[in-house]
Amino acid sequence: MKLTTDYYDIDDLLSTEHKLIRQSVRDFVDNEIKPVIDDAAQHHHDIPDLMKKLGSVGALGPYIPEEYGGAGLDQMSYGLIMQELERGDSAVRSAASVQSSLVMYPIYTYGSEEQKRQFLPKLASGDFIGSFGLTEPNHGSNPGGMETKLTKDGENYRLNGAKMWITNSPICDIAVVWAKDEEGKIRGIIVERDMQGFSTPETLNKWSLRASKTGEFVFDNVLIKEENILPHVNSLRGPLSCLNSARYGISWGVIGAAIDCYESALNYSLERNQFGKPIASYQLQQKKLAEFITEITKAQLLCWRLGTLKNENKATPEQISMAKRNNVKMALDIARESRQIIGAMGIVGEFPMMRHAANLESVITYEGTHDVHLLITGADITGINAFV
Ligand code: TGC
Ligand code: FAD
Questions:
Q1: Which architecture does CATH list for 131-228?
Q2: Ligand 2 in reach of 14 Cβ (< 6 A)
Q3: Reported pTM
């Protein structure tokens, strides 16, 4: 009996430091997330002090250099951290993804020295909660059509428009927001909670990511000073480069959700007897379990290779799209099928499958839908862009 989720000894490819980092986040998830996650998801509330707790285990901006409050780790470490967090819940990984890849990354990459020093250490510690506004009511898969406008007002600017489906919007202290200037160039703006005309209504009644807050951004003539505009970005490449980092983290993260479902189903099927034998002894159930570990192993190998390419700064957006698309679908399929293996027990919160499956319905949509990522691969291999 092989009760391992490292079927191909991928651990041999990791350093001692990687394994120590993974273990510390695994312990954090076992002690701080697993005991409270079902209640948080059932009652649609977030986990108290989550961001500060994530900051204390080094999960916020792990690859940001230490001089700005990050941990200065490599991309493999970032991936392993995301994997362990999503073993707990996609909402926890989402919080760390947004803060690290969608808020700290653009400030670090496109911000001024003052902006980096002002915001990054507080984001790394979790004292500040960050949010990222790209999607709009009329522009989801095609963010290039955005209508949010940044217009000149004397020496300053005014921001008008709206963003939708924004993770952590209702609780954010700052937001990295993308808007078009009067020349049609896409600019990144750091919007702060207390700016007049900025509001963040919550999106209620979600069936997915119930331990995470989602909401809107509304900008009603918000006064923006030059010092809040990211100086080193002026095109769609800016927000899309942030997505590359977040999508990479998701590719790893969802392996954690799949492992949690697989382990729960395997253990249950070895203990649960029907017709006088464990359900794990029946070929139909073995087929499911064998396919789960096969798909998890393939996803791990994809991520390990992608992590290596990322460390060498060679991973292409198209390679990242392939991993995001493949691994999220893999995890969603395993969550759905593993719920069936445990029968009626699969519908109660004592087991994690239904929660992971519901969460993964968001994960397969955000950061580029399943079909959008397929079209990115299609365009790459044919040279023909099928979006338009
Ligand atoms: P297209 O003409 O293809 O590209 C426009 C410019 O951008 C460049 N580019 C990229 N650069 C860096 N990384 C990438 N991944 C890039 N993809 C494209 C491209 O080279 C071009 O540059 P230039 O200099 O020639 O102008 O753009 P398009 O208008 O045809 O649109 C296609 C695109 C890429 C937008 C679409 O494929 C896509 O990715 N749509 C999905 C949108 C999306 O993922 N939104 C995510 C919102 S954030 C979110 O969901 C957070 S969830 C958080 C959580 O809780 O975890
Ligand atoms: P649409 O773009 O309207 O797509 C609808 C359907 O049409 C999809 O199936 C899509 O694949 C398909 N489609 C679209 N274009 C094409 C095409 N050319 N060819 C074929 N099919 C196509 N956004 C942020 O900016 N920040 C956040 O923090 C954030 N957090 C989120 C959190 C949650 C819980 C969710 C659910 C979403 C979040 N999003 C966030 C938004 C997310 O990125 C968008 O939902 C996503 O990009 C898809 O946009 P849409 O929902 O408008 O769908």
A1: Beta Barrel (2.40)
A2: no
A3: 0.98
